[in-house]
Amino acid sequence: MKKHIFTTCAAGVVLTGGAVYGIGRAFADFALKRGTNADDAVKKTLNTTPTPAEETESILRRAAAQWREGIKVQELELTSTDGLALKGYLYPNNTASHRYVILMHGFQDTHVFMEPFAVPYYEDGFHVFIIDQRAHGASEGDYTTMGWKEQDDLRGWISKLLELDPQAEFLLHGVSMGASSILLCAGSDLPGEVKGIVSDCAYSSLWKEYEGKLHEMFHLPAAPLLITAELAARITPGVPIHRVNPVEAVKCNHVPVLFIHGEADDYNPVWMAYELYLHNAGEEKALLMIPSARHARSIFTDYDRYVNAVRNFAKMHVPY
Questions:
Q1: What is this structure's pTM?
Q2: For residue 127, what pLDDT is reported?
């Protein structure tokens, strides 16, 4: 009788554990696998009331498309350290400049999203390089890693551009996941040719990001599902979620940073911007908060203030 009870209990534990792991695996795939509707699903939990920023974004995107037509964009390819063919797009300026801006888009976007950000840099004489991040756009990959492997991809792109122009100096500008990828990279071994970083609406911790999304979207507690999602993500695609932690990385960063965040961002909460700013080790840092701006929409909410701040930062750290 006791043996039967023990066997039944053990089977129940195994089945329960398997079910919890299965849910964790499903969440990891939902959050990281290419082609899911994760970003759209998250946005359904956010404030979607129309704002004037939408009209501004439409105008700026049309202007960026016209700008692109006048440039001979060069497609470059990089093989990642894990064998993926990654794509990036060089918008060469017709000046003799050695100043480059590398732009990195966010989750489930492509290089095209960053073109409105590129135009002011180009007008100021920068060569523009925009990445299609792994598992996005024309780049290979079945999974994004939310910055974990993207930071190595960024190092590879910097090295490739330095091969093309050994005198190059760089400004790095990322939005959301792109910004977090840059900050992770900045916490280790960015080359000296990188002179400044613009971090727009980065998350400070992927664990905290997912913890919030589990509650908002599914009304589920973080434990044990996030723990099992961590185990699943470590297997495929090899992401230790708790270590995708930009706030720890910036504690070792001494590259100048301009942090930007929208005060109405309910995707990556506003407190993350303050956390990143306060923990950044370098003294050359600034924080620009844009009133009423939602996630990744600061440039479209107050274009003049955003662009003026970025231009002043660029002139200070990557002068003509």
A1: 0.92
A2: 98
